[in-house]
Design goal:
By secondary structure, the protein is α+β, with helices and mostly antiparallel strands. About 55% of the residues lie in helices and about 15% in strands. Strand 2 (about 75-85) and strand 3 form a beta hairpin.
């Protein structure tokens, strides 16, 4: 496992969306114990405001995906997209394939990757079938993105001065809604497509030089462009591609960072204000994205998070094949790792899983019923066939937890 390098396009669709996510979801700072909004703040008015935000987010994402699907480099299918008002989260799952026609600093070493991030905007993507061609490579992808809109609004409220002074969440949600409605989807989709087709170290230098000439006396923008050229990453190229769309009036592009400059192009006025905050966190957010080769051990905690996320999608759309496949994949991985430890009389992962499930809210625990059943069946098998009191001990521990969680009807135990 390693942190995502800014130039590696393991999922070009995902990396392209990262800049969009940063623009439409500015609350992407690391979560701390005191960063969660107080539940007492969620009045009917706040919930209504977040619903409008979710509607605007849904409309914007579907428009963007539709435009990208019509490009020559991406084919995308949406499997689920909905807002769950109870937990104030927006979900979208997609799959597809694409082409990267640019040139990378180095060749990818594997053909399959998992890309994950756990923040206010979280995502899980499976990238497969990476095949190099004469020009670039082809790839397939599937996964889901989840927006925790209450967390996003809360972080935005703390950051923007006039919102912080009000101490209210609904103005922050209204600001997000306004931003989403103003997003220029055409510019975003064109820039993502251009990045997939053209990115290279030569292309970013050429684009930067052209923009510097067009920027004229806009000194702040010139600094932003030079910094992007020096960074030489695929995300910076995406940003320059977005700014290039405003080349005819580049002297009017505002912002002292790549984020705010991009914001002023895709959402004039409000985008500049939020973009400045977003721009300062873009690369730290990418650095927190974990990329795993499938040959490398995938942490159990991340698999538990994936199970919950895809279970929430399946609860609304049982026919979502992407969610079902990713859910079952994580379930099998967790059981395999725990069973391997059982073979050596180790129960470290067993305790980890039980403790993590215990920390989840009551309404979230049903996501782990198949996992609990798998553990129950395995322990019962070991007790009967091995006659080992140690496995009997953990079988009883599991039973007590299941009963404490009120899941005994879904995971029935036989009393002896």
């Amino acid at each position: 496992m390693w942190k995502m390098k800014s130039y590696l396009p393991f999922s070009l669709f995902l990396i392209g969306l990262l800049f969009v996510i940063q623009t439409i979801a500015p609350a992407l700072a690391n979560e701390t114990p005191d960063s969660k909004p107080n539940q007492s703040w969620f009045s009917a008015k706040v919930d209504a405001s977040l619903k409008f935000t979710a509607d605007a987010l849904d409309l914007g994402f579907l428009k963007l995906i539709d435009r990208l699907d019509k490009s020559e480099v991406l084919n995308i299918k949406v499997h689920s997209h909905f807002y769950d008002a109870k937990i104030r989260r927006y979900f979208i799952s997609v799959s597809g394939d694409g082409q990267f026609k640019g040139r990378l600093p180095e060749r990818l070493k594997a053909t399959e990757y998992l890309i994950c991030c756990e923040k206010e905007v979280s995502y899980d993507f499976y990238i497969s079938d990476i095949k190099y061609q004469k020009s670039g490579f082809n790839f397939k992808f599937s996964g889901a993105i989840v927006f925790s809109l209450d967390q996003i609004a809360y972080e935005l409220m703390k950051t923007v001065p006039h919102l912080a002074a009000s101490g209210a969440l609904d103005p922050a949600a209204d600001l997000l809604t306004e931003l989403l409605k103003k997003l220029n989807i055409g510019i975003l989709s064109e820039a993502i497509s251009d990045t997939l087709k053209s990115f290279s170290s030569v292309a970013i230098s050429r684009a930067g030089a052209d923009l510097l000439s067009a920027a004229g006396n806009n000194k702040k923008l010139s600094v932003v462009i030079k910094e992007a050229m020096n960074d030489n990453s695929i995300l910076s190229f995406l940003g320059l591609s977005i700014i290039k769309s405003a080349a005819k009036s580049l002297v009017n592009v505002a912002g002292a960072s790549l984020g705010s400059a991009v914001g002023s192009v895709v959402a004039p006025g409000i985008g500049t204000m939020i973009g400045g905050y977003v721009g300062s966190r873009i690369f730290s957010y990418i650095a927190s994205t974990a990329v795993y080769q499938l040959t490398i051990k995938f942490p159990v905690i991340r698999d538990l998070n994936k199970m919950l996320r895809f279970h929430q999608i399946l609860a609304r759309n049982p026919n979502d094949q992407v969610a079902a496949e990713r859910y079952n994949h994580s379930l099998k991985l967790i059981l395999r790792k725990i069973f391997r430890e059982f073979n050596s009389d180790s129960f470290k992962l067993f305790h980890l899983v039980i403790n993590r499930i215990d920390k989840h809210a009551k309404e979230e625990r049903p996501a782990f019923i198949p996992l609990l059943r798998g553990l129950q069946e395995k322990l019962l098998f070991l007790v009967i066939n091995e006659g080992d009191w140690l496995f009997a001990k953990y079988y009883q521990q599991l039973r007590l937890k299941v009963e404490a969680w009120g899941l005994q009807n879904e995971v029935p135990f036989t009393r002896r």
